[in-house]
Write a structure and sequence with these properties.
Strands 5, 6, 7, 11 and 14 form a 5-stranded mixed β-sheet that branches. About 25% of the residues lie in helices and about 35% in strands. The chain starts with about 25 loop residues before the first strand and ends with a strand. The protein contains 5 helices and 18 strands.
Length: about 300
């Protein structure tokens, strides 16, 4: 009896599943946009940060939507059991809705009121929701209004010009409030692409030391300078080399508000194309014949070629 021959089963390879981007969003870092995928950020897990960073119009629209949804929800619960609200006016769902609005806002004009155990129970839950919502909204509004915000003005461009015989990278900052910012400090960093000896591409952050990195009373303006000498990371850089390495300069300024004691922070970002070589800023200080000094911020961003 001959043994039956079994042909080996052919195993077909499954095609790899097509990657579906999850949590796709665009994030701007400096002057470059990055498309981020693979991180899902549920809004309800970080509501405080969401409401602190969202714009004011969107915040008010969101709060109004929440208020309307809860009013409709509890109004529908009253509508399910007719007669639970006394002196309902206007009759029907409209009256239940307006009673829900008065209850959620803890206004209670007195003419309409719960009449049954069911009505009192729903009203009790709605009052609790209203009180909690009022407390959360009050805290959120206070946090947004009390958040320290620096009104520091940075020039749109940086310039490179010789000072005391050395080429110097210069930026200019101003305090728009003209209040006293104590112990202000500035830091300048450069981000650029580099290739190591092994051929590994890296985005390197380089600190650029400043001539004066601290200001005791930052009130009007501040000229921030980095000398491009032999020890500077920019000693061998040109406009073409900065363009090739896609260099970005980040200027950070922080200090303490003398009036509120809050720490103020702001930053200016400049790409390689924002640096003007062999140029200088227009002088914004002028002294009148009577000795009065005038500061013209209308010329703050003006640049003149050397």
């Amino acid at each position: 009896m001959s043994a039956s021959k079994h042909s080996p089963k052919s195993h077909s390879r499954r095609a790899p599943a097509k990657h579906k981007p999850v949590g796709r969003r665009v994030v701007r870092v400096g002057t470059r946009d990055f498309v981020i995928e693979g991180i899902v950020r549920p809004i309800f897990h970080d509501l405080f940060h969401h409401f602190m960073t969202v714009s004011w119009p969107r915040l008010f629209v969101t709060l109004a939507a929440f208020f309307l949804v809860f009013d409709l929800l509890f109004g529908f619960l009253y509508y399910l059991v007719p007669g639970c609200i006394a002196n309902l006016n206007p009759p029907g769902f409209a009256g239940d809705f307006f009673f829900s609005v008065e209850t959620l806002a803890t206004v209670g004009y007195g003419e309409m009121h719960p009449e049954t155990f069911y009505g009192h129970s729903v009203a009790m839950i709605e009052i609790f929701v209203g009180l909690m919502s009022l407390a959360l909204i009050t805290g959120l509004m206070f946090a947004r209004f009390s958040r320290p915000r620096a009104l520091f003005l940075f020039t749109k461009n940086g310039v490179v010009r010789p000072i005391a015989g050395e080429p110097t990278l210069i930026f200019r900052a101003a305090n728009e409030r003209q209040n006293v910012v104590q112990d202000a400090s500035a830091r300048l960093r450069m981000l650029r692409d580099e290739i190591t000896e092994e051929g590994f591409r890296i985005r390197r952050i380089v600190d650029l030391p400043l001539v004066r990195s601290e200001h005791p009373m930052f009130t009007l303006g501040w000229t921030i300078m980095h000398v491009i000498d032999d020890a500077s990371p920019l000693s061998s850089e040109t406009a073409e080399s900065l363009s090739k390495s896609r260099a970005v300069f980040v200027l950070s300024v922080s200090g303490t508000d003398e009036n509120t004691g809050q720490t103020l922070m702001a930053r200016g970002e400049y790409s390689f194309a924002d640096i003007r070589w062999n140029s200088t800023f227009h002088d914004i200080l002028e002294e009148a014949p009577d000795g009065t000094i005038h500061v013209d911020y209308g010329k703050f961003h003006d640049i003149e070629p050397l």
